[in-house]
């Protein structure tokens, strides 16, 4: 199955002429991704990570807000109507602009690839991106998506949702941090990545709502480290 990024056709098939290894050759807009050396996703390992300095740590400020959901770039996206939820990194605010997911996970944590990974994409006023990655196992859960806050509103008939995006965050907020790229064309960087190491539980019933609109596999292969440093923050 082939999807479109604007007018350029690409897919996730590794042996394809339009697959991940050839994305940067498909058009001029994708070409910079092939020239940027710090690509994502990567294999993250605690025993090969440095301690993240306090000044580099992230603070998250989320609140319940209105989203719409739509399908593009090979996945389902939840897009907020307003710039309310945000992160602060190095004194800069990054506002939540998109939530989407990949199956299986794009990042690998200590040799483990999870069935699912959510990306919470943030953008600063300078148009710089910061992404939170959260990995999940899937199970049939009762009356909840991942964390049961009890006041979310999911209206898939009208594509309008009200929820606090912290439902996608793990309880134990320890994370890896590294500099990488986007994981879909044009795969440009630098992108500040924060990937939580707690594997969450996602309701398979929630994912099944989108199964007719998704590819069976929409994860980019693991990329080379190319000498970059990986940091780890252990939550207290």
UniProtKB/TrEMBL annotation:
Domain Alpha-carbonic anhydrase intervals: 8-234
EC nos: 4.2.1.1
InterPro entries according to UniProt: Alpha_CA_prokaryot-like, CA_dom, CA_dom_sf, Carbonic_anhydrase_a-class
Entry keywords, A to Z: Lyase, Metal-binding, Zinc
CDD domains reported in the protein's UniProt record: alpha_CA_prokaryotic_like (cd03124)
Domain of life of the source: Bacteria
Entries under Pfam families matching the protein: Carb_anhydrase (PF00194)
Uppermost EC category: lyase
GO molecular function: carbonate dehydratase activity; zinc ion binding
Catalyses which reaction(s): hydrogencarbonate + H(+) = CO2 + H2O
Coiled-coil segments on the chain, per record: none
Family listed: Belongs to the alpha-carbonic anhydrase family.
Protein name: carbonic anhydrase
Species of origin: Enterococcus columbae DSM 7374 = ATCC 51263
């Amino acid at each position: 199955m082939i999807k479109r990024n604007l007018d350029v056709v690409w897919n996730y098939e590794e042996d394809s002429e339009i697959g991940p290894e050839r994305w940067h050759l498909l058009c001029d807009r994708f070409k910079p991704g092939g020239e940027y050396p710090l690509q994502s996703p990567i294999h993250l390992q605690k025993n090969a990570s440095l301690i993240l300095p306090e000044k580099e740590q992230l603070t998250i400020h989320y609140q319940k807000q209105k989203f719409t959901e739509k399908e593009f770039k090979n996945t389902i996206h939840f897009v907020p109507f307003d710039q309310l939820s945000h992160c602060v990194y190095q004194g800069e605010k990054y506002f939540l602009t998109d939530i989407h997911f990949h199956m299986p996970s794009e990042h690998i944590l200590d040799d483990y690839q999870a069935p699912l990974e959510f990306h919470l994409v943030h953008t600063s006023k300078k148009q710089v991106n910061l992404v939170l990655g959260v990995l999940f196992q899937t199970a049939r859960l009762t009356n909840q998506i991942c964390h049961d806050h009890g006041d979310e509103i999911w209206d898939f008939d009208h594509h309008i949702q009200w929820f606090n995006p912290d439902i996608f965050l793990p309880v134990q907020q320890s994370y890896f941090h590294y500099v990488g790229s986007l994981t879909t064309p044009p795969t440009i960087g630098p992108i500040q990545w924060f990937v939580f190491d707690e594997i969450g539980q996602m309701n398979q019933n929630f994912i099944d709502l989108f199964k007719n609109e998704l590819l069976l596999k929409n994860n980019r292969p693991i990329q080379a480290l190319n000498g970059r440093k990986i940091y780890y923050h252990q939550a207290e």
